[in-house]
From TrEMBL:
Organism listed in the record: Loigolactobacillus rennini DSM 20253
Superkingdom: Bacteria
Pfam families, per the entry: DUF2922
InterPro entries: DUF2922
Name of the protein in its database record: Uncharacterized protein
Length: 114
C-alpha cells in the first residue's frame, strides 16, 4: 500500500473536528519562563525554572540573584550544593494551546452532570 501524503490524510478529518480546532486555537496562551542554569558541587548541570518571573530582568539582576542562591546553599542535599555555580540564564518562551481540560470544559462537564 502506498503512503498517503499529509494533505490526503488531512482531507480525511471530519469538518466538525476542523471547526473545533479553530475554536481551541483561540484559547491558546503565551508563557515566558526564566531558566537559570547552575553547576552543582558534584559537577552536574542543574536548572531552576521560574514560571512567574518578571519579564524584563537584566543581566546584573539575574546574576546577582543566582549568586545569592549559590552562596546561601539553601538547597544542599547530603552536603552537596546543587546550585553551586551560576552558568547562564535565559527566558524560555512557550505557546500553550489546550486541547481539552480547560476551565470552560470543566464547567460544561459539571453543568451536564447536574
Amino acid at each position: 500500500m502506498a503512503r498517503q501524503s499529509a494533505l490526503t490524510r488531512n482531507q480525511q478529518w471530519p469538518q466538525a473536528f476542523i471547526e473545533a480546532t479553530a475554536t481551541h486555537a483561540e484559547r491558546s496562551f503565551y508563557m515566558k519562563q526564566l531558566d537559570m542554569e547552575f553547576k552543582s558541587e558534584a559537577g552536574k548541570t542543574k536548572h531552576m525554572r521560574l514560571n512567574y518571573a518578571a519579564q524584563d530582568l537584566d543581566e546584573t539582576t539575574v546574576k546577582t540573584a543566582m549568586q545569592t542562591i549559590a552562596d546561601l546553599k539553601m538547597f544542599e542535599i547530603d552536603a552537596v550544593n546543587p546550585y553551586a555555580l551560576p552558568i547562564k540564564a535565559q527566558y524560555i518562551e512557550r505557546n500553550v494551546t489546550p486541547i481539552f481540560g480547560s476551565e470552560e470544559d470543566k464547567q460544561l462537564a459539571k453543568a451536564a452532570q447536574e
